[in-house]
Amino acid sequence: MSIDWFILLKAFISGLSTGVVICIPLGPSGIESIKQTVSRGFINGFKVSLGAITADMSYLLIINLGLAKLFTSNPKAEGVFWIVSGILLILLNILTSDSKKHKKRFFNFSNLSLPPFLLGFIITFINPMTLSLWLALSGTVVALWRDVGVIYYIIFLISILSAMITWFGILNLLASKGFKMLTSKTSGKEGLTSRILKYILIALGAGFVLFGLIKIIL
Question: How much is the average pLDDT of 40-58?
Answer without folding.
Answer: 93
